[in-house]
C-alpha cells in the first residue's frame, strides 16, 4: 500500500453562474488535465434566496456528464427532450449530455431558505461524445450508507466501497464518489484504486490529510509502507485537496469532526476543446456545435 501525497490544497473561489447564482468553484475552466476526467466542481450553498433563486435557465450541454448532489433545498430541472423532475435533499442526478441537450436547473431553498448542493462535470471520451443523452435520478433513500465501528459514515453514491455499491452505474470515467463523515479526533484511511485521479472536498468541520512526501508538518506515525507520514494543516470549509499517485488517503478529523467528498476517476487523456458546457476534442468539433446551436440543429432526434 502507498499513501497518496497531497499535491495541493486550495480554497474554492466565489463566482457567479447562471442568471446570478452565487457559488464557490473548487476547480474549472483552467487546465483540463489537472483532474482528468473531471473538468469542474461547484459548491452552490447559500442561505439567502436572492443569491440563487434566478437559477440556471436554459443552456446547452454536449460531450460531458454532469453530476448534481443536493444536501439542502431542492433543484427543479427540465430539458429539451421533455424530461422534468425535482431533486430533494440527499438526491443525486447523473446526466449524460452526450450528443446534446438543452437543460435548466432552478434551485429552491428549504423552509429556512437554505440551499446547498454540488455539481461535478466529468468528461466523455471521443467514442461517447455523441452518444444519446440519458439521466440517472437517484433518491437519497436508495444511496447506501456504511457506518464503521468508530462512527465513520460513508454514503456510496457511485462505485464500490466497503462492500456496498452505489446506485449510479455505466459511467465512462469509472468513478468513485463518496460522501464521508469522520468523527472528532478519529484517524481514518480510505482505499482509492491506483489508476484513478483523486481529490477531496471538505465542506463541514476540518481535517488534516496525511502526506507521505511532505518534509514539514506534525509527525503522525511511521506506519505507511515504512515511510514517515506527516500531517498537513487542517483543511476546513470549502477546501479542495488534490492527491498524487497511490492507493490510500488518510485523514485525521479535527475537534468538530470532518465531512468531505472523496472523488476519483480513470483519466481519459484526450485533447480537450472547451467552450462553457460544451466539451469536444477538437476546435472544429466545437465550431460545429456552435453552428448547430445557431441554426437549431443542436438536438439530435430520438431514435
Q: Provide the β-strand percentage band.
A: over 45%
CATH architecture designation: Sandwich
DSSP summary: helix tally:
1
Radius of gyration: 19 Å
Helix content: under 10%
- Specify the CATH class: Mainly Beta
| Strands, count | 25
Total discrete domains? 1
Order of helices and strands: EEEEEEEEEEEEEEEEEEEEEEEEEH
Mean pLDDT: 90
Low-confidence runs: 215-229
- Give me the CATH fold name: Jelly Rolls
Distance separating the two termini: 47 Å
- What's the story with the biggest beta sheet? 10 strands, antiparallel
Describe this structure in words.
Strand 15 (about 160) and strand 16 form a beta hairpin. The chain has a single domain (about 5-265), classed as Jelly Rolls (Sandwich), CATH 2.60.120. Strands 1, 13, 14, 17, 18, 19, 20, 21, 22 and 23 form a 10-stranded antiparallel beta sheet that branches. A 7-stranded antiparallel beta sheet has the order 2-3-4-11-6-9-12, with no helix packed on it. The chain has one helix at about 285-295, and strands spanning about 5-10, 15, 20-25, 40-45, 55-60, 65-70, 75-80, 85, 90-95, 100-110, 115-125, 135-140, 145, 155-160, 160, 165, 175-180, 185-190, 195-210, 220-225, 225-230, 240-245, 250-265, 275, 280. The chain is mainly β. The N and C termini lie far apart (about 45 Å). The chain contains 1 helix and 25 strands.
